[in-house]
Amino acid sequence: MDSPVIRFQGAKKIYPMSGETVEALKGVDINIYSGELVAIMGPSGSGKSTLMHIAGLLDSLTEGKYWFDGEDVSFISRDQQADIRNKKIGFIFQSFNLLARCTAQENVELPMLYQRPAPSNLHQKSMEALRMVGMENRSSHLPSQLSGGQQQRVAIARALINDPTLIMADEPTGNLDTKTGKEIMNTLAALHKNGITVIIVTHDHEVGQATQRRIFLRDGLIEKDEKQAQVSGLIVS
Amino acid sequence: MNIILTMIRLAVRALLAYKVRSLLTMLGIIIGIGSVIVMISVGRGAHESIQRQIQSLGANMLMIFSGSSQKGGVRAGFGSAPTLSVRDAQAIERECPSTLYVSYVLGTSAQLVAGKKNWGTRVWGTTSNYNQVRDWQVQDGEFITDQQVRSASSVVILGSSVAENLFDPGEQAVGQQIRIKNMPFRIIGVMQARGRTPSGQDQDDTVLVPYTTMSRKLVPNRLPGVVHFIMVSAQSQDLVEVLKQEVEELLRQRHKIIPGMTDDFTVRTLDEYANMAGETTNTMTLLLTAVAAISLLVGGIGIMNIMLVSVTERTREIGIRMAVGARRRDILLQFLIEAMVISIIGGILGTVVGIVTAMIVSGLAGWVAIVGLDSIILATLFSGAVGIFFGFYPARKASCLDPIEALRYE
Ligand SMILES: Nc1ncnc2c1ncn2[C@@H]1O[C@H](COP(=O)(O)OP(=O)(O)OP(=O)(O)O)[C@@H](O)[C@H]1O
Ligand SMILES: [Mg+2]
Description:
heterodimer; A: alpha/beta; Rossmann fold; six-stranded mixed β-sheet; 7 helices; 10 strands; about 30% helix; globular; B: alpha+beta; 2 domains; six-stranded mixed β-barrel; two-stranded antiparallel sheet; 13 helices; 12 strands; elongated; binds adenosine-5'-triphosphate; binds magnesium ion
């Protein structure tokens, strides 16, 4: 097997809280390889979001080491983190996080705005990404004119626009009804089929069942890391 | 480039989303830049019109008064004992090579009576080339001739204001008789209208008689040969200063003024008048500069305030941008551009307000407002600079936000 996309060694995150400290991650070792579809599960407050933020280079470890795509990123600067996020990571959030004043297409183009060197065929690429999530005929709509599921699709298109190595989704179905949630999961699974590494943070056991690998967190530690040979039908018809 | 254009578009969109708020934010800048424009254009207009008034005194002219010049300007004329004489004037004409024309005047105040109307005004006794020195022609009739000066004729030339006051519109003044100090005078001409001097005197509210008529008939008890002031015109503009030197040297010689003594006369060029008049405009400019500076400061603080509010309101947006890969300086740039767009639009509105105000002000003051392209460019650059200066702190604050906290912000 080639080198992991994500490799944590003794990863610790300590939040200073007025006087005392909160230890959100207490020493975690994880390897996630290219092309995997991983669910990170666990009770509320177990450190799932914290882990995802650090893995996504939105935050840094307090202690331990982190390699991203074979590169030691434990102590890189904020601007270097921003560049890696821009080039290699796509985020999908529970609350969609689209810019309210921008159209669907402009939202999708947002990461390309910060790409260096500046890309040329902006509109063409964003339309392509919207087509991939079935939103091409809503390109000029504002987020407020779209349903939750549609907004999440736009967010997925935005995550895809810079051809990322890794897609990270924190409770992507948390604000959606079951049916829409499943459609979003199908879209993510399709991306995985195309070879993108996908990490999904979720409470939903049904979602978890659908992945090849599940990592259970509890109180900032890995409780279980199980690989499933048989993936139960993620793609629902 | 792409990113900057997009940012400008977004900034404009953000402004349009809160129109009233944006306008209020811009108010300080509008007033500030407006004052700058008013200041520059009215200042220039005033300067221009003062220059024109001064040039209207006569081309390349020197004025020679009795009395020494004091710091606060010249105190001379009717009050002080005249020290200048017709002989001085003749000597200047004879001995100063840069001279073109020389004329001199002796004045008095008198009551004029024409039929049933009467009018009090200043009467000047002068020579036949007064109109050449002052570059001032008759509108109707003829100017005083040498012959009339030699024979002390009872003839008079009216200033246009005097003619208006003594005669009905359309009535022919030339050829009529009027009485000055109860002596009959025949009107031989009416001067062209000349307007006011920089000090506000109506140049057209005077009448002219031959010098000899004045000294012998109207003020017979004066010392013979005395004049109130002498006017000399130089052969060219370059020679004005030279002529001034020549005249000063000659008069010191004639008045026996040795080095160390103060002169008993004063020679002034029109440039010196212009500089004196400039001081009043400078005071006004200073005042408007203060208004502009204060407004721009207040406007800048307003922009800073609204940008801080905007940064807080859009914390989540900042988080999203950071998550998709915006570097700190991208965020900094975005908010700086936004502050600049506010202040530059404010600057443009201020320029328009300023131009309109300048036109109204100068219309009331009887000047021409001179709005140059340079002042518009200056105003725009200045407002942009205000935007950068006061937008920097909020923009920096935005760029230093923590991505996670920004994303979590409700
Ligand atoms: N910025 C912070 N400052 C202080 N403590 C924090 C901060 N962020 C998270 N924590 C704490 O770290 C622990 C882990 O939080 P985290 O958000 O990772 O949990 P989670 O597994 O994502 O929970 P949920 O399922 O509810 O989203 C919690 O105890 C939380 O209170
Ligand atoms: Mg969470």
